[in-house]
Amino acid sequence: MTDVKACCAAAYDSDVVELVLGTSYHPGGLALTRRLAQLAELRPGQRLLDVACGQGTSALLLAREHGLIVDGVDLGEESLQRARAAAEQAGLTDRARFSTGDAERLPFDDSTFDAVLSECAFCTLPDKPPAAAAFGRVLRPGGRVAISDVTVAAGALPQNLRDLAGWIACLADARPLEEYARLFTDAGLPVTTTERHDEALARVIEQIDARLRALRMTGALDGLDVPRALELTRQAGGAVAAGHAGYALLVASKP
């Protein structure tokens, strides 16, 4: 499973992924980031950990708009370098720091953060129970976990979406919303709020499909198996239309 994490990190470090997804790598973009912040009741001066922060887009938004002190962790060194450069350009290096970190073994002391954020990333973690426990470990009492993620109904995913490409596409190990809630509850983090935003996943699949078709004629997607990527988007779109896949927000609290 280490190979899965390394491949996902390498994929999301690539320029091709940015061409296809844009700068916000999750359905709903920054609008759903703001909604998560609202649901988690984030306040100025609080410390936030952004797990799988990518290029730091959400972390910098929350540092700027909510006055948070943010640490972002990711396994992609290229993404981290871009996040640091963006923080410097925005004049936010005093409130936004980025470092290498594994979600299952977070490199922070117990009870460090007021909130932990993870967007469209928990579904890609091979070992979810230790990750949920790690989120709880670094939270202070009364702190909140706020995640947004792909959901898939139990047994509904076609077998050919369970390979490595399916992992990178955030589908292979996505779970029903109720199972995410159970994972956090079992880690001592009872869930306080959930919201479904399936339309956000449908929109991003349509956007990916359109960008793939437009970019394949330019040569910008050299090295990407475009037919396979288009087939993934077709099947993912079908899963959403059938009600088998969707997107949801979840907030849990540490007693």
What's the N-to-C terminus distance?
A: 32 Å
| Strand neighbour order, sheet with most strands | 3-2-1-4-5-7-6
How helix-rich are the residues, as a percent range? 40-55%
Low-confidence stretches: none
How would you describe what is shown here?
This protein is α/β, with parallel strands linked by helices and 255 residues long. The chain has one domain (2-253): 3-Layer(aba) Sandwich (Rossmann fold). 45% of the residues lie in helices and 20% in strands. The protein has 10 helices and 7 strands. It has helices at residues 2-13, 15-21, 29-39, 57-66, 77-90, 128-138, 164-168, 177-186, 198-215, 226-241; strands at 47-51, 69-74, 96-100, 113-119, 139-152, 191-196, 245-253. It has a 7-stranded mixed sheet. Helix 5 links the parallel strand 2 (69-74) and strand 3. Helix 3 packs across helix 4 and helix 9 runs antiparallel to helix 10. The model has no long low-confidence stretch (mean pLDDT 87).
Summarize the structure.
45% of the residues lie in helices and 20% in strands. With 255 residues, the chain is α/β, with parallel strands linked by helices. It has one domain (2-253): 3-Layer(aba) Sandwich (Rossmann fold).
